[in-house]
C-alpha cells in the first residue's frame, strides 16, 4: 500500500518544515483506545542553530508506531513524532489530549511488526508562526481514538415524564399575562385611535388568528422549551438564534417592568400618589420580586390557575356591570364620543391603534416556553384558548368603556383606565375590586418575567452564549442569584432611562414582543424548508406564515413611526444584550486575538498572561460534542457552509440534515460550538453490520482537522431514546451537545422522547413521605432532586432498614466503613410504560461510610461532600444518598463500593507480568487519569482537600476513581474550626500551619502520590511525627530525574509557584507517549532503571490522623488502632488481589 503526505511539521516555536513523505513500507500498530501525548518542547536546539537551516539531502527516517498521524493539513504547531536522521533529531512537544473514557471496555488493535520507513526531503519554509515568541502548540487538540464500549444493562431514561399540565392549568400560566394586558392596552390604544379603538383591537384579533396554526406547527414539530430561541437554534444558524434570544430576554425585561409600573399606577389611581412615590414603589416591587425569586419561591400551576380564575371573574363582572350601566344611561356617551374628531384621518387612527393594540396579546408567545410540561396535544388547545380569551375581552371591553366613559377620561386615566371603568360602571366597590385584581395579576406578571428570564438565561449560559458565572448557585436556596440580580439591574435601569413613562415602556414592550412573534413566524418558514421531514400534527401553508411575518412587521414599523424614541431605547438594550452574547459566541476567537497581540508585547510574557489565556481556551474547547452516524460515507468534503443543527432544548438532541456528511458535522462544530473534541458514535446490533470504511474515514477526518480531536465510538445497541439517554449518562455529555440526522415522518419515535431532564415533579410528590429528621439534610436532598438532570445526579434519603448484610471493611478518621446490600437498588433509568423509576435489579452492593458524632451534622459539611456530586465530573465515585443509624443517630454516606484502593495495588506483593517499560506506562496511565479528573474539579472551583492513595479506588473492570471529596473536618463542625483530618504525609505544609485548603494544596498531595506510585515507599518511614510539619518526604536518588523534577515542582514552597494540573497532565502524557513510541531512549533507560521492588519498613502507615492547625501546637499521635494501620505485605482479599496487568488500561 502506498500513501503520500505533504504537510507542515512545526519543529519548535519558530521553525516550520515541509515534509513531502512517501511511504514505501507501511505497517500500523496502534492501540486506539489509549491516550497519546507528547513531552515538553525541546525541538528548537536540535534542528539547527539557524532559523533558516535547511536539509537538502534525502534521509531514511524511521517512524515509530503512531507516527503515521504526523501529517496534518495546514498545521502550524508541533505534532507527535520523534524523527531520527543522520544529521539531526527533532522532538515534538506540548500536546494536549483529552481523557479516555472512564469505563473503556475494549479497543481495536492493529498489529504489524515492521516499522515505517519513509523517504523524506526536508526543506525549510518561508511561512513563519503567527506567534514567534509564544508557543502555539496548544492549538493541537490531540489525536482521535477508536473505542468499543458497552453500556449498562439498565439504560438511562429517554424521556422522564412526571405530572404534566392539563389544558386549563397550562392556559392559566400564559393566560395571566395575556388577559392582564387588557389593564394597560385599552387606555393607550383609545388615546391613540380614539373612537376607533374597538375596531383596532378587533383587527388585532384577526391578525392573531393565523398565529394559532403557525405556533401550533412549531410546537408539534419541536415540542421543546425555549421559545423562539430554540426554534431558530434548530432551523438556522446559532448567531441568528442568539438574536432571537436577545429579543426574548428583552421581552421578559419589559414584561416585568411594564407589569410593575402598571400595578403601581393602579394603586396610585386609588390613593392619588405622586409620580415620585409611584417611581420608587415600582423599583421597590421589582426588588422585592427579585428577593422572592432568590429565596426560591416559585410560581406554581395551582396558584397561577387561581389568579387566572379570579382575574377572569373580575373582568367578566366588570363587563356585566358595564352592560347594565350602558342600558341605564343609553347611547348618549357613546354618541358623544363618536363626535370626537381624533387626528382627522380615520384610516391612520385605526392603523396606529392596531399597532399599539398588538400590545394586548402579549403573553401569547410564552406558552411554548413550557411545552414539555404540558400533556400531549395540550399546547394546541392552549393557543386556541388564548386566542379566544383575547377575542372575548379586548375589543368588547374597549367598546363598553367608550359606551360609559367620555374619551377625555381615557386621556386623564390612561394608566388605570380599567379600575376607573369599574367606578363608572358600579361605584367604588368595583373600582377597588378591579384595583386589587390588577395588583395581584400584574404582580404575578412581574414574577413570571423573573422566573421566565431565569430559565432562559440559564439555558443560554448552558449553551455558552452568556457568561458562565451566571450558573453559580445560591448555597442557601439553590437559586441562580447572579442571573436574578443581573436581570433586576436591567429592569431598574430600563425603567430609570425612560423616566417611569409607561407609554414609552409600553412602546419598547411592543417592539420586543412583536419581534419575538415575528421570529416565530420566520422560524415556521425555516422549519418547512430545513426540517420538512419532521413529524407534526399541524401544518399551515407558507402563505399563512408569510402573512404572519408581514402583519407583525407592519405593526412593528408602525409602533416605531408613531413614537421614534422607543426605538432608541430598544436599540440600546438590545445592543447591550446582543453584544454580550456575540462576545461569548466568539469567545475563543477573542482569546486567540489577545494571544496574538500578547505575543508582540514581550514584557508581559513574564507575568504568565499567556498561560491564563491558553487555560481559558482549553477549558472552553474541552467539552465534547457527539454526532451519531450509521454509514461510512464522507462524500461532502470542504464544500460550502455547514448545514445548521437541530438542537432540542430540554429534549436536548441535535440533528443534522445530512447524516452521511461527516465533514459537515466537523465544520459545524468548528464554526458554532467552540469545541475541540468531536465524538462520532455508530450504533450496531451485529458486528457484521459495521460499515467497513468507518475507521479509515475517521482517520482521514482526524488528520484533516488538527484543532479538533475526533473520536470514533462503536456501541452495540438500537438507536432509541433509552440508548441515547444511556450514552449521555455514560459519557457525561449533555444531550444538548448530541446530534443526529433530521428524522422523517416514519421515524418510530417522537423528537420529545429523546431527551428530558430528570423530572423533579416525580420527586416532589414524595417529599411528604420521608424525612431524615434534620431540616438541613431534607432541604439539601430535595434541592438536589429538583435540580437533577440525569439519574446519576439523583440523591436519595435511604432508610437504614433498606440496607442488609453489613460487614465492616475499614476504619478511618471519620468512623467505620461498611459494605452492605441496598435492597431497593439505585435509580438507573425511567420506565416509560409504568411512568416510574426503574432501579438496579437484585439490589446493589454499596459502601456505607458512617460519620462519628454526626447526629447534629452541619449544613456546611453536607455542602462540602456533595459539591462534586453536582458537578457530574467523570472519574468520581458515585454517591447515592444519606442514611442514619437508628441507635447512634449518626449519619452515613452511601456510595458505590470499590473493593480495591490504589494504595493496595501499589503495595501489593503480587508481581506484575509486564516488563519494566510497560509497568511504567501503567503507572503513568493511572496518574494521568487522576490528574485529569482532579483538574476538571479544580476548573469548577472544587478542591478535594484529602487526596491520598487510599481515597483513589477501583471497581472491577474500571479505571481508578477519586472518592471522599471534602472529608477534611468532622461532620458536626465547620471548616473554620481549624481542625482537619487527613493523611499527614499528603497534607501540604501551609495547611498544617493553619491555611485553608486550596487547589495548590491538592497539587502538593498529587506530588506525594507520584512519589508513592513510583517508589512504593511508605512516606515518612523513619521521621518522628512531631517533625513532619516542616519535613517533606525524601525523594530517592534512584528515582528518574524527570520524575524527581516533576515532584519538586508540585512541592514548591510558595503554593502559587506549583505546577498546574493541566501542565502535570501534559508532562505525564508526554512520557507515556514516548514510552509507547519507544522514541526517547534516554527516558526509557531511566524508567527501566527505576527500582520497582518494594521499599519495606516496619513503620506504621497512618491512614487518617487529626491535624491540629494551630501552628505552635502541631502534633500527631503515633498510636493508632490496629484498623488504622496498613501493612504493605498483608495479603489482599481474594477479590482484590490484582496486579497492574489486570487494570484494563
Task: Please provide a written account of the structure.
With 1145 residues, this protein is α+β, with helices and mostly antiparallel strands. The chain has five domains: 4-141, no CATH class; 168-548, Amino acid/polyamine transporter I; 622-754, no CATH class; 772-897, 2-Layer Sandwich (Phosphorylase Kinase, domain 1), CATH 3.30.200.20; 903-1145, Orthogonal Bundle (Transferase(Phosphotransferase), domain 1). Helices cover 44% and strands 12% of the residues. It has 32 helices and 28 strands. The chain has a six-stranded parallel beta sheet. Strand 25 (952-954) and strand 26 (960-962) form a beta hairpin. Helix 1 runs parallel beside helix 10. The longest helix is centred in the middle third of the chain and has 35 residues, at 428-462. It is elongated. The model is unreliable at 1-125, 155-162, 632-660, 971-978, 1020-1029 and 1091-1145 (pLDDT under 50). It is a multi-pass membrane protein. Residues 803-1068 form the Protein kinase domain.
